[in-house]
Specification:
The complex is a heterotetramer, with 1 copy of chain A (288 residues), 1 copy of chain B (500 residues) and 2 copies of chain C (326 residues). Chain A has 288 residues and is α/β, with parallel strands linked by helices. Helix content of chain A is 44%, strand content 20%. In chain A, the strands form 3 sheets. Chain A has a 6-stranded parallel β-sheet, with helices on both faces. Chain A has a 4-stranded parallel β-sheet with strand order 7-6-8-9, with helices on both faces. Chain A has a two-stranded antiparallel sheet with strand order 10-12. The longest helix of chain A has 17 residues, at 18-34. Chain A is elongated. Chain B has helices at residues 51-58, 81-86, 104-108, 122-135, 151-163, 181-196, 208-214, 237-245, 300-307, 330-335, 345-349, 356-361, 365-368, 376-389, 405-417, 435-450, 462-468, 491-498; strands at residues 13-22, 25-35, 40-45, 66-71, 74-75, 89-92, 115-116, 119-120, 169-173, 200-204, 217-222, 225-230, 263-271, 280-285, 289-293, 315-320, 323-325, 338-341, 423-427, 454-458, 471-476, 479-485. The two termini of chain B are 46 Å apart. In chain C, strands 1-2 form a two-stranded antiparallel ribbon. In chain C, strand 1 (169-170) and strand 2 form a beta hairpin. The chains are: A alpha/beta (288), B alpha/beta (500), C mainly alpha (326). The structure holds adenosine-5'-triphosphate (2 copies) and magnesium ion (2 copies). One adenosine-5'-triphosphate sits between chains B (148, 150-152, 276, 294, 296-302, 343, 460) and D (10-13).
């Protein structure tokens, strides 16, 4: 091992989403244990900012880059920029189609969303009135989660989707307002699918405030800390826990392997764990 | 080729039957007016008589409600100020309209910047601006920002702007309100020159002594109607005043009563940080009107602002009724009973967008609403009382910028005096105020003194200072050149010291 | 900042500025919107829905009250959204990490909002920064600090009592947060209309030099409005926490724009001296009704944006129009 | 909007405003920052890094040029970020969905930026909306429309030639987009300093009524600056597309704030009549250097926010300080 610690760049899409924040924390924590220097930058959701930040990381001579793309779809420019400087890239969560990273680590969202949909169908007895609170339209997670959940719903004809509206920033207050207005329009809604835990938590809060006379099922996605706690206390009826801790660690390990010249698989897709009241305690104690 | 005997001259400007209404208010009624080339017509009238409105109509700022105009025989109905300018008619507005963040040169040529090879010809512009300012007696660099100039200089910039318009007809709306004697002489020299070149003028002023000097004819407006027209300017002032105010004014100044009050204000060795005044000492007694004379730029305004707490003081002391006062803000001086009526009513006296009522109430809330609840009714009642006391032509609910200039000045006076101060400092109190109202204001000033207040009057109108004051202090280049008793003070003794 | 307010004295001003309100245009716009949605959305014209809309606008509304004061003095406060998060995270950190009891933690959070406002106010008055820059700095700094407390993590586990403020309907109608918002509206309205200090704010915004010469301690008032705006942002942060039951460092992101828009729709001028709480309330409700109503008639997210843009422009243009007529 | 600009005529003003620049404070701040980072970050003081920083600020910079013009007239343009996305999506839609050749699609995109500016300009001048509201409406509407084109999806597959504009370094140093930005800076500088039309913008911002009396067609100019700002936003949109090789409806989100901040840091006043392109360039570079430099010295993300806030306040306060001294 060289005297100088290895220096890794971590470009995060936006820390305002807990999911990314968890990965960031995992990378930083593991790096500390391994004596690796990590330089973290937050693009605050803007692709152009991220390009700038990656230029700066390259200029600073990081030895590998962990790239969590910002914006609706993964931009290729950051990967090209890093590659041009001979820096290996670990893409996390999204992978640019035309310039993929050396390895790609993500949850298989379509499969996960389908699993969640199947569970929702089972829980509600295959009957119900569904409202969907979408994430930011056009983004990969939104599209994948939509696709998987729809697949599940085709096998569950008793559940009718009556409303869908997109949030702009995946945030809880948006979820609250959208759900509140949806319930106002159609009080018979008894299933909400929030495309992220924050959206689902907002919806759950709206359902609670509306104080309707029937049970409202609320499903989220991500398994972030607030989401897991909500599953535990019954506010959410289920979520898909993404393995953020593991993905962060894996991303760092892959980056180090790439620096060391080892080969790393091109895709390392992870399962997300269906999380319900029964199994949530384990995930809270020890986030996967 | 002055053929004044021809009744319908094709040359020059003539307006017929001009009427202007704002909603239900008729501001001008059926006004006729002719001005020939090479002629200066003085337009006189009380505050709010409609003089500025006539000017604005001629210069294309506002359209008339009814009436027609011809200019050199052609029908003339300007659609905008630019249109009027293209036809050769320009206006210096009563309210100075300059751009404080731009240089003098750019202010003079705004809207018609000369170019050379496609670039603004800065050098040429500066040269011409400097020439014109020099002819008016102002020798400052044309690159100076207008915001850094004092009022008189700004007025001169405004005049220079008009002189470079290449107009064939100019309207001067109270151009000398902020000027001293010398500056006025310079302006008149320029007007004479242009007159000889065939330019026509409408000249508006409340300084009647100027009329005989500069005007060829006089037209008097009252309540929006033409009430008098004199073929020569050699009209006795008394006649003009009667035509303007509709009654005779027996006297202008109240009698100066003997003094026996105790000293209220004492100023010793007062010096400003930037040297605009230094080592000034004087004292004022209860019941005294203390005049301060000096030429423009003597430092009078700075001195007064310092006493009022508006500007910092470097050294010296102020004592009010035996107690020392070291004001760090106007609030401190106000608490000691000193109010200042500032010279620049637009920038320092009024919140123009707010109503007359709100303006008068400002700073007077303890009197408007002793119980701490400022109801609109209380504001209106308070304002109405003051509107009556000062004869303001306006209603409490009107925005201040709807008022004529003179009436705005009265609002500033009203709100300051309503504070029931011990010491009143009046900086150019009658700027833009008509003769009738001026006599009224002089009565108010004398009345304040009679009530036992100490009154300080700063004015560039020497007659005013001499006519009102028990004693006159003469300031020159920031220093006290002597304090004269009203028995010794006259034009000569004061001017000698002022120009020293 | 607007061009049309700058008409100088002596010119013919285009419309009359009515300090006490002059909010007819937006009010008519608001009523028109309500009527429209009442026909289009089945459950719009119900008490239940009115409660929901008030609930949805409470947080923005509290911010807009502080913003009204700032804008009347001729300033602007970009930091309200960040200070909201900063104070909520302060309370959250003290309560859930430091272990302070809730009520003292709450007051510390509100106090720190006031301190953030104090910083803006001092930058504006003593360092003479333009309010835009001063509050932009405060906005950036407080957002950074809000994140630092918990390293970007969410604070949950607020006491149930807090949530009750937003969910329990007193008299079956009004929640504590909404009631508090309406009380603030009334108090501020009375302050601005009847108290000398309130009237002084208009004078300061209209012409600070005139105000100073009238003996008003201009700097003191200016610092004061920023402190109040900061304190109100903190209170809005607690209302937000009561509503969402969690707080996170990115709460209130972009709310400053909504608050400013509400105030300006309500007839205030960004050049100062003009504005009213009644107008602001109407501005807040126009935005709230549009958002909620469009959701309820099932408008697409993008169409919603387009319609909201058009309606805001229309409401304000309509106001200008009827003012000009008068 | 600032209090201190309202100093009355005839009073001794506290500082002198220098139109041709007056940018000493920010300039010194910029130099100080560069020196600091040169010592702290190993690779900061290199040609390579200077190129990178110019590349990073090009998009903001182009927006800030248009913003400078608008702010000098006393307005504000909140729509620049949205119009950036709207035009880029227009070009993208025409090119990749309608199948129009690239160059005409590009010109259509720029034209539609101008049209968006025209809408703002007409709302400001004829409907007499405050610029804040007019451009807020345009901002919301264009963002909605940008999303509608592709239902929120990303446009990729721009021609390679477009990307080359941002990647190929002419003379080994300067990319076409950066060169174009610098040319725009020079052209606008010359326009504002030497052309009568440019000087007229200052007069309009200083006092629109004075400008009107002087025969300047105020409305025409005002509409003009918004059209130019819209067109420049469209050009910035293409520079952004060249840089990212994709375009998406949320491009440019929040850029208006950065652009306004740069202009105000550069000495312009939001009340109009004051400002310069030189100042704006410095403002843009201060923001660019701060962002880049702090990334390069590895500042913690949240600390970065705090430091940027403090530095912006310091740079402007420093400017006020030295102006007051003079
Ligand atoms: N926009 C307006 N709306 C209503 N009334 C107005 C408006 N503008 C002017 N006026 C009124 O018109 C009348 C004439 O005003 P004008 O300015 O012409 O008077 P003036 O003769 O120039 O007075 P001064 O000597 O004080 O300058 C005044 O009573 C004024 O209040
Ligand atoms: N804003 C300013 N900037 C620079 N110098 C100023 C300013 N205002 C006043 N001065 C200078 O201060 C001196 C005194 O000016 P001040 O206005 O007090 O004179 P004044 O006697 O009141 O004259 P005026 O009749 O013009 O009011 C002048 O020499 C003037 O040049
Ligand atoms: Mg007049
Ligand atoms: Mg003076």
């Amino acid at each position: 091992r060289a005297a100088e610690p290895v220096k890794i760049g971590l470009a995060v899409a936006n820390l305002q989403a807990d999911f990314f924040n968890q990965i960031k924390q995992s990378v930083e924590k593991n790096a500390k244990e391994m004596g690796v220097t990590v330089v973290t930058v937050d693009a605050k959701g803007d692709g152009a900012t991220q390009v700038s930040q990656i230029q700066d990381l390259v200029n600073q001579k990081v030895q590998a880059l962990i790239y969590i793309p910002a914006g609706a779809a993964a931009a290729a420019v950051p990967v090209k920029t890093a590659k041009a400087a001979g820096i290996p890239v670990v893409a996390v969560d999204r992978n640019p189609a035309d310039a993929p990273g050396d390895t790609f680590i993500a949850t298989n969202s379509v499969v996960a969303a389908k699993a969640l949909g199947d569970y929702a169908c089972k829980q509600t007895g295959g009957k119900g009135v569904l409202a969907v609170i979408q994430g930011q339209i056009g983004t990969t997670p939104e599209q994948d989660r939509d696709k998987g959940f729809k697949e599940a719903m085709t096998g569950c004809p008793g559940v009718k989707e009556v409303a869908r509206e997109a949030s702009k920033m995946w945030m809880k207050d948006e979820g609250f307002n959208i759900a509140q207005n949806m319930l106002q329009r159609d009080p018979t809604i008894n299933i909400f699918f929030g495309r992220a835990d924050a959206l689902a938590l907002g919806a759950a809060q709206a359902a609670k405030a509306a104080g309707g006379d029937h049970k409202v099922y609320v499903f989220g996605f991500d398994g972030d800390l607030a989401g897991l706690k909500a599953v535990k206390d019954g506010t959410l009826d289920g979520t898909m826990t993404q393995r953020t801790q593991f993905m962060g660690k894996l991303a760092l390990q892959s980056a180090l392997d790439l620096v060391a010249g080892k080969t790393v698989p091109a895709e390392q897709l992870q399962d997300a764990a269906l999380t319900t009241k029964e199994n949530v305690d384990g995930y809270i104690a020890n986030h996967p | 080729m002055s053929n004044a005997d021809t009744p319908n001259v094709a040359e020059g400007l003539s307006i017929r039957g001009i009427t202007k209404r704002y909603g239900p208010i008729t501001v001008l009624r059926d006004v006729d007016l002719d001005v020939k080339p090479g002629e200066v017509v003085a337009l006189l009238g009380e505050n709010g008589a409609g003089k500025s409105t006539v000017s604005s109509i001629i210069a294309g700022l506002v359209p008339p409600t009814a009436g027609t105009m011809t200019w050199n025989g052609q029908p003339y109905a300007p659609t905008s100020p630019a249109d009027a300018l293209r036809r050769g008619i320009g206006l210096i507005h009563q309210e100075m309209r300059l751009l404080p963040d731009l240089s003098i040169a750019e202010n003079v040529f705004v809207g018609r910047l000369p170019t050379r090879n496609g670039r603004v010809d800065r050098a040429g512009m500066a040269r011409r601006a400097a020439e014109n300012l020099h002819s008016l007696g102002l020798d400052v660099s044309p690159a100076t920002l207008v915001g850094a100039l004092r009022v008189a200089a700004q007025q001169q910039v405004e005049i220079a702007k008009a002189l470079t318009l290449n107009a064939r007809f100019l309207i001067f709306d109270e151009p000398t309100a902020a000027l001293g004697g010398e500056e006025t002489d310079n302006l008149f020299a320029q007007i004479e020159r242009l007159k000889r070149a065939g330019m026509g003028f409408i000249y508006i002023s409340h300084r009647l002594d100027e009329i005989a000097r500069i005007a060829d004819r006089v037209v008097v407006l009252r309540d929006g109607q033409k009430v008098g027209s004199h073929a020569t300017a050699q009209v006795p002032v008394k006649t003009l005043v009667e035509a303007m105010v509709g009654r005779s004014l027996d006297r202008m100044f109240p009698t100066i009563e003997p003094l026996n009050g105790r000293e209220i204000l004492r100023v010793e060795g007062l010096t400003s940080p930037d040297g605009t005044f230094s080592d000034v000492s004087f004292s004022v007694k209860a019941g005294e009107v203390f005049g301060i004379a000096g030429i423009v730029g003597a430092g009078r305004t700075e001195l007064m602002r310092a006493i009022a707490g508006a500007d910092p003081i470097a050294s010296g002391t102020i004592t009010v009724e035996g107690r020392p006062l070291a004001p760090r803000s106007p609030a401190d001086s106000l608490a000691a009973g000193i109010v200042l009526v500032p010279e620049d009513r637009k920038a320092q006296g009024l919140v123009l967008e707010h109503t007359i009522g709100d303006n008068i109430a400002l700073g007077n809330y303890p009197r408007v609403a002793p119980n701490g609840f400022v109801t609109p009714g209380a504001v209106r009642r308070f304002a109405d009382a003051n509107i009556r006391r000062f004869g303001i032509k306006g209603r409490a609910g009107q925005p201040a910028n709807h008022l004529s200039g003179g009436n705005q000045q009265k609002v500033v006076l009203a709100k300051s005096i309503a504070r029931q101060p011990r010491i009143v400092i009046l900086d150019e109190p009658t700027r833009g105020i008509d003769v009738g109202a001026r006599a009224q204001i002089y009565d108010v000033i004398a009345g304040l003194a009679r009530e036992g207040l100490a009154v300080i009057v700063v004015s560039s109108d020497l007659d005013e200072v001499l006519g009102l004051s028990h004693r006159v202090m003469v300031l020159s280049r920031g220093t006290n050149r002597g304090i004269l008793d009203h028995t010794q003070a006259n034009r000569i003794s004061v001017m000698e010291r002022a120009t020293h | 900042m607007t061009v049309q307010t700058k008409h100088p004295a002596g010119a013919v001003p285009r419309f009359k500025v009515d300090l006490t309100g002059g909010v007819w245009g937006p009010l008519i716009g608001l009523i028109a919107l309500c009527v429209f949605f009442a026909f289009k959305a089945q459950h719009f014209f119900t008490l239940q829905n009115a409660i929901i809309i008030f609930d949805q606008v409470t947080v923005y509304g509290i911010l807009a009250i502080g913003m009204t004061l700032v804008i009347i003095t001729g300033g602007i406060d970009l930091s309200v959204g960040s200070v909201l998060a900063f104070s909520a995270m302060t309370t959250g950190w003290l309560f859930s990490i430091v272990g302070m009891p809730f009520v003292p933690a709450l007051f510390c959070g509100i106090a720190i909002g006031g301190v953030a406002g104090l910083a803006s106010g001092l930058l504006v008055t003593y360092a003479r920064l333009p309010p835009f820059i001063a509050t932009l700095a405060t906005m950036t700094i407080t957002r950074g600090l809000a994140n630092k407390y918990t390293d970007g993590n969410v604070v949950s586990g607020w006491p149930d009592a807090l949530n009750t403020l937003n969910t329990y309907r007193h008299f079956g109608v009004i929640t504590a947060t909404t009631a508090f918002f309406l009380l603030l509206v009334i108090a501020t309205w009375a302050f601005l209309k009847y108290r000398p200090a309130g009237r002084n704010l208009y004078a300061i915004g209209g012409n600070p030099e005139v105000a100073r010469l009238a003996g008003i301690p201009v700097r003191f008032y200016l610092v004061g409005v920023y402190v109040v705006a900061g304190g109100l942002s903190a209170i809005a942060g607690m209302a937000n926490a009561a509503r969402l039951q969690t707080s996170q460092p990115y709460d209130g992101l972009g709310y400053e724009l909504t608050a400013i828009a509400a105030v300006v729709i309500g007839g205030a001028s960004l050049s100062g001296g003009v504005g009213s709480i009644g107008g602001t309330l109407i501005g807040v409700l126009i935005i709230g009704v549009l958002n909620s109503g469009l959701s309820q008639i099932g408008a697409q997210t993008y169409d919603k944006d387009v319609i909201i843009g058009v309606m805001i422009a229309a409401a304000v243009a309509f106001d200008t129009l009827i003012r000009r007529r008068r």
